[in-house]
UniProtKB/TrEMBL annotation:
Main location (coarse class): cytoplasm
Organism expressing this protein natively: Canna indica (Indian-shot)
UniProt keyword annotation of Nucleus present: yes
Highest taxon listed in the record's lineage: Eukaryota
Protein known as: Elongator complex protein 5
GO BP terms, alphabetized: tRNA wobble uridine modification
Gene Ontology MF term list: tRNA binding
UniProt KW keywords: Cytoplasm, Nucleus, tRNA processing
Record localization: Cytoplasm; Nucleus
Length: 158
């Protein structure tokens, strides 16, 4: 996975597809590697937005914060309330609101000129439970074509 893109290019994207129980471990490995690259200043991204659908935000905090500045990581919690019963902004059925929420959470990284952030979705399959395939493909395309996003990756169960 190449983090970063040249001007005028779409952000690179990687979807890890698994049919075995190893997918989450591979996703976590990529996630930890990306966070260490961001922390070391070796990434185009200024931070990482995690769309948490499969694990709680506390899982990612425990996994990633060891020796890393917590300001580099923002978590969009769609795990506890994916359908927006308590918080309508985080309704994964509404792809436009989900896209807006990702951008809103990532805004904090954009204080510098031409700063951008990476986006990781821990289980794209969860979004597919509630939204159509074309709308999820549109979400991924909109994320990739945003000039604020340096890379996109996620996990999908086959």
């Amino acid at each position: 996975l190449r983090d970063g893109c040249l001007e005028g290019e779409h952000a690179p994207a990687l979807i890890i597809e698994d049919s075995l129980p190893l997918g989450p471990s591979v996703f976590d490995h990529f996630l930890a590697n990306l966070v260490s690259q961001i922390a070391a200043g070796k990434s185009q991204a200024s931070g990482l937005v995690i769309v948490a659908l499969n694990q709680s935000p506390s899982f990612y905090i425990d996994l990633l914060v060891k020796g890393v500045d917590t300001l580099l990581i923002r978590i969009l919690d769609c795990y506890l309330d994916p359908l927006g019963w308590k918080n309508q902004v985080r309704n994964v059925r509404d792809i436009n609101k989900l896209l807006s929420s990702i951008h809103e959470v990532g805004k904090g990284f954009l204080g510098q000129d031409k700063a951008c952030f990476a986006v990781a979705t821990d289980l794209v399959s969860s979004v597919l439970r509630y939204a159509s395939l074309p709308s999820v493909a549109g979400l991924l395309n909109n994320l990739r074509s945003s000039d604020q996003i340096s890379s996109v990756f996620g996990l999908m169960h086959s």
